[in-house]
Amino acid sequence: MKLPYGATLAAATAVALTGGLLSLATAAPASAAAAKYADDFNGDGYRDYAVNWSLDSKGGGIRVTYGTKSGPGTKTQLISQASAGVPGADEADDMFGENRAAADFNADGYGDLAVSAPGEDVDGREAQGAVTILWGSAKGLSGGTTVPNKAPKDSHDRMGSDLATGDFNGDGKQDLALVNGHKAYVYRGPISKSGVGGSVTTLDREGLFYATALIAGKVNGDNKTDLVVIGDVLTDKYIASDAWFIKGGSAKLYPGKTLRLESQNGNGGSSDRGGDGVIADFDKDGYGDIAIGTAIHSTLKGRVSVWYGASAGPDTSARFTQSTSGLAGTPEAYDEFGTSISAGDANGDGYQDLAVGVSGEAINGKEYAGGVHVLYGRSSGLTGTGSHWFARNTAGVPGALDEADQFGHQVRLRDTNQDGKADLYVNGTMGPVRLLGSSAGVTTSGATTLDYEDVVIPGTLQ
Fold this sequence. Notes:
This protein has helices spanning 10-14, 297-300; strands at residues 49-52, 61-68, 71-80, 100-103, 112-117, 130-135, 142-146, 163-166, 175-180, 183-187, 191-192, 195-196, 200-203, 209-217, 226-234, 238-247, 254-265, 276-280, 289-294, 303-307, 317-320, 337-344, 353-358, 371-376, 383-390, 410-414, 423-427, 433-435, 448-449. The chain is an all-beta fold. The strands form 8 sheets. It has a 4-stranded antiparallel β-sheet with strand order 4-5-6-7, with no helix packed on it. Strands 8-9-10-13 form a 4-stranded antiparallel β-sheet, with no helix packed on it. Strands 14-15-16-17 form a 4-stranded antiparallel β-sheet, with no helix packed on it. The longest helix has 5 residues, at 10-14. The radius of gyration is 20 Å and the shape is globular.
C-alpha cells in the first residue's frame, strides 16, 4: 500500500538523519520456518519499522528501526542503492523506498522487504521504475534482488507505484503484487535471492481504469489472500475512482465486483484519486473488511468507505464522514478526512478498530492543524458511537496546536508493547506522538513525543 492522498509531506519532514549502515547482530531463528512477523527483518521475534528516508541520498532510501518488547528500539539501519549488494545506483529522483511491502519471501525465518524506485531510469527510459527485494538476516536487511519487469517497458510507467504482498494462490509461498504502467501484476512465489520462480498475472480491467493502489488481505475467509485494486476511472462525462475486488485462487485470480469511491463531472488525467486502505475484521465475523480513505471526496472534505467481507467476497458497504453520528466536527472543504487510515485492536476486545487522519482540519482558526478520529469495531461493524478525537489541543496530547502541522497526515495502530492493545502513532510536521491503547480505547495517559530518530509513521506496513 502506498501513502494516501495528501500525505506527501511526510518523508521530507519526518526526521533528521544519522548516518551509516549499521550492522545489527542478533541470534538466528531456531528453525527455517517462515517468520512469524513479515516485518521482523532480523528474526528476533519483534516487529521492525521501515520508512522512506530520502534526505541522506540522491535517489532516496529507507530507514529501519528495529523493534524491542516495548516498541521501537535504538538500533537502526539506513539502506539506499549505494549500499553494498543493493542493485542499481544512487541517482537523483529514483525515489528508492517510496513504497514498501514486507513478507518472508524465501521462508528462512527472516522478514524481507520489497522496495520500489518508481523514478528509476532504465536503459534511457525515464521513470520506467524498478522493484527490489531486500533480504532479511540475523544482521538485518542485507543485499537485494531485482524483480523482473513483466510489463511493456515504457518511460513513466513507474514500476512499483504501489506494492502488496500475500499468498494469493494458497500454496504457502509469498507472492508480490505491484502497480506498473497503471496495471496491477501479481508475481507468484517462490521468490528467492536467485529471482522470481512463479508465473506473473496481469490484472487489467476493461475500460479506462488506471490502477493506482493495492490492498491485500483475506476477505472471504479462505486460506488465500485477496487483492483490492484501487484505480481512476475516466469517461467523456466524468472522472471517478473505484475499488476492484480480486479473489485469490489456487489456479488463477478471479476479478470480481467494484465499489465506487468518488466521482465528479468532467474528465482529466489520472491523479491517484481513490486513496488507500486496509483490510481488517471490524465486526469479528471471520471475514476481512475493506476500509479505504478517499481524502479527495467532495472538494477534499474526505470520506472513508468500508466494504464488509463475506464468504462470497465483499458485500454491504458503509460510508463515514465527519457528519457521521458520533464523530466530532463537521465536513468542510479541504479537511481531507481519510488522509491516512490504519487498523488495530486499540481496546483489546477482539474487534479491529480504525484510526482516520484528518490532516486539513482547521482548529481555533489555525488552518491545516489536523487531527485523528478513532472508530471502534463491534458486532455490527464500525460506528461513530463512542469514537475518540485527538488533536494537539486535546488535553494530554503532546505539542502545541499550530497552523500547517497536518497532525494526522500519517497514522498507525500497532501493538508495539505487546499488551494486547494497539497504540496509536500520529505524525505531524511538528513531530510524531504515541498514544497508548487501553481497555477504554486510545488514551492520552502516558502519551509521549517521539524523537525524530524513532519515527515509524511514514511506513506503510500495518
